[in-house]
Specification:
- This protein is globular.
- It has two domains: 199 residues, Medium-chain alcohol dehydrogenases, catalytic domain (Quinone Oxidoreductase, Chain A, domain 1, Alpha-Beta Complex), CATH 3.90.180.10; 128 residues, Rossmann fold.
- The protein contains twelve helices and 18 strands.
- α1 packs across α12, α5 crosses α6 and α5 packs across α11.
- Strands 3, 5, 6, 9, 10, 17 and 18 form a seven-stranded mixed beta sheet that branches.
- The chain starts with a strand and ends with a strand.
- With 344 residues, the protein is of the alpha/beta class.
- It is 29% helix and 28% strand.
- α12 links the parallel β17 and β18.
- It comes from Anaerostipes rhamnosivorans.
């Protein structure tokens, strides 16, 4: 498909320009997707503000990674999809060849291939990602809700890797989009979920996602408040979903002896945490990290969105046109709303 398209083009941190560029040309094993809805994301906000070492490899570059749309062109070797299909997928796919992939640790793949360009009118989907991490969108699922697939897959992966079970009390620190997804997923597991956040607005929103109690983290006694809700012992599991080192430390102080802390929020390079080693050792606390998603969790996330167990509409605060995508990201940066749909 020849021609021009409108896109948000990344030139440098803080320098993103809405301009006209060439429509991507596909290979015989690729498809061209007309974007129907893209979503704001904390990762894209950070990319806009400070760049990204793996997502942005050359400039100028399209950017944004959560989207869904319609196939408008398919290469002659593509058999999985056809023109007119409503599709959605993840922004990466593992290679299945490296040592980590052979050990089924797909999120640690040494050769992850990335897909960029959600804040554009058209996106070309590479063959490998198309084959392993793209799916048809059911007719009843709106495009903007289908576009939640990638972040939800990350949260599904995280919730799948912690020992939370029916009746457990789980504190989730951070009521942003990922934190809210964790809250809903853990409530579906039968856990009593405590939402912890600095924002009263976000804590109020969290009540729509099945939480049991809320605690405002701005108070000096908020760790004690969480522990008191758990008979003074602390939560069975604590999920950290903010990406701030001091919150990682707080999470360790919220968990009960023998409990598990999931450090899910990614921090800035070079940051570190300090732990009470005696507490950590003698209370046998498990501290673990989970990153990204796997093809299995992408497929499961689409199932949850499609069958309504995850109500995608609750995550969409409003809509912005493509030319206002940066305004939408800045709004998220001010913690206004949960996610915004960007409509080309």
């Amino acid at each position: 498909m020849q021609g021009k398209m409108k896109a948000q083009m990344f030139y440098a941190p803080g320098d993103v320009r809405f301009e006209e560029t060439d429509i991507p040309q596909i290979k015989d094993d690729e498809v061209l997707v007309q974007v129907k809805a893209a979503l704001t994301c904390g990762t894209d906000l950070k990319t806009y503000r400070r760049g990204h070492p793996t997502i942005i490899t050359s400039v100028p570059s399209t950017f944004g990674h959560e989207f869904s749309g319609v196939v408008v062109e398919a290469g002659k070797d593509v058999t999985k999809f056809k023109v007119g299909d409503r599709i959605v997928g993840a922004n990466t796919a593992p290679c299945f060849e490296c040592e980590h992939c052979k050990n089924k640790r797909y999120s640690l793949c040494e050769n992850l291939q990335y897909l960029n360009g959600a804040y554009s009118e058209y996106v070309a989907v590479p063959a490998h990602i198309l084959k392993y991490n793209f799916y048809r969108v059911p007719d009843h699922l709106p495009f903007e809700q289908a576009a939640l697939l990638e972040p939800l897959a990350c949260a599904v992966h995280g919730s799948d890797r912690i020992p939370a079970k029916v009746g457990d009390t789980v504190a989730v620190i951070g009521a942003g989009p990922i934190g809210l997804m964790f809250m809903k997923l853990l409530s579906l597991k039968g856990c009593r979920v405590i939402a912890v956040d600095l924002s009263d607005y976000r804590l109020e929103q969290s009540k729509k996602f099945g939480v049991w109690e809320t605690v405002n983290a701005s108070g000096e006694e908020h760790i004690k408040e969480v522990r008191d809700l758990c008979n003074g012992q602390g939560a069975d599991v604590v999920v950290e979903a903010t990406g701030f080192p001091e919150v990682w430390e707080n999470a360790v102080n919220m968990v009960r002896p023998g409990g598990t802390v999931l450090a899910f929020g990614g921090t800035k390079a070079g940051t570190s945490i300090t732990l009470d080693c005696q507490k950590f050792h003698y209370e046998e606390i498990t501290l673990k990290a989970v990153y990204h998603h796997t093809p299995y969790h992408v497929q499961l996330a689409l199932k949850l969105l499609s069958n309504g167990q995850i109500d995608g509409s609750l995550f969409i605060t409003g809509h912005y046109p493509l030319e206002k995508a940066i305004d939408a990201l800045e709004s998220i940066g001010r913690q206004e709303g949960i996610k915004y749909a960007i409509i080309p």
